[in-house]
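Figure 2 data, in text form.
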Amino acid sequence: MTQLATREAAQARQDDLRRRGRRLGWMSLGLGVAQLAAPDTVRRISGVDDSSTSRTMVPLVGARELVHAAGLLTSRRKGIWAWTRVVGDAMDLASLGVAIAHRSGHRRRRLVGVTGAIVGITVVDLLTAVQATRATRIGSAVPVRGPREGGSMELTATTTIRKPPPTVYAFWRDLDNLPTFMAHLETIRATGDRTSHWSASAPFGKNVEWDAEITDENPGEMIAWRSTGNADVPNAGTVRFVPAPDGVSTEVHVVMSYDIPGGPIGKVVARYFGEEPHQQLDDDLRRLKQVLETGQVVRSEGAPWGKRARKEFPQRPAQPLSDSELAKGADA
C-alpha cells in the first residue's frame, strides 16, 4: 500500500503538471495566432522597428509558438515540450537584449517591458520543465505494471471518453453501472452511503467476494476505494476524471492494487486461461468508453458473448464448412 500511495501522489503531480502544460499551450496558441495574424501590431506594441528582419522574424516566432501549442495541448510528454519553450524563451531574451542595446527612448522602454514579461514566462516554463522531468523519473521508479512479492499487483490504465467529466464520474459513482463494463463483476450491493459488498467471477468457475468502502472522493474529479475485512481479493485503487485537451472529453486514469488468489501460481494459471489482469483492466475501460459513447458494449461476431460467459473458449481456426453446415445453408 505504501507504493500505491506513492503512485497516487505521483499521479496527482502529473495531473497538476498536465493542467499547467495545457495553460502554457493555450498561451503559445494565443501568441502564435497574434504574431501571424497581426505582425505589425505585435511589432508596434513591443517597440520593434519596422525592418525587413523584424517582418521576417515575428511570423517565424509565431509559427514556433504554434508548434509549442500543438505539442503542449496534444502530447502527454509535457516535460519535453516545456523544455522546447525554455529554449525558445532563451532565444527571445537574447534577441531582446541585442535590441535593447541599440534602442533609446520609448522604444527602449517598451522593449524592457516586453523583456520583463518574457523573463516571467521563462521562469514558469523552466519550473514546469524541471518538475515534469523530476515527476517522470519518480514515476518510472515506482513499479506499476508488474507483480510484486507475495502475489500483489499494481495496475494502471487510461482511456479517453467523449463525455464531460461530471457525466463520466456520475456513471462510475453509481455502483449499479459497474457490472455493465467490468466483465468479471457479478453483483454489487450497496450497504451504506460509502460501503458496498462485491461479488466477482474468477478462473475455473469460482466466485470471490469482498466488502469495500470509498475512502476519498471529489465529485466530478476523483474516487478512491479499498476493500475491508477479510476480503477474498484485497484491493484498493483510485480513478481520476481529468478534462481532455479538446474541452469536451474526459481522460479516465485508473490505479489499482490487489492480490490475485493463489499468488504467483494463480497469475500464471489465470494468464493461461485468458485472464491476464492488465488486459482485464484495459478491456474494462474499453467497454466503459463504449457504454458511455454508444449506449452498449459492442461485441464481435467471433466472440459475441464475451469472456463473462466463456463461450468464446476454445475458439477454432478458420476451416471449411462441414457437410451439415452446408446442408443448413442450402435449406436456408
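Caption note: The beta strands are 152-161, 185-190, 195-202, 206-218, 222-228, 235-243, 250-259.
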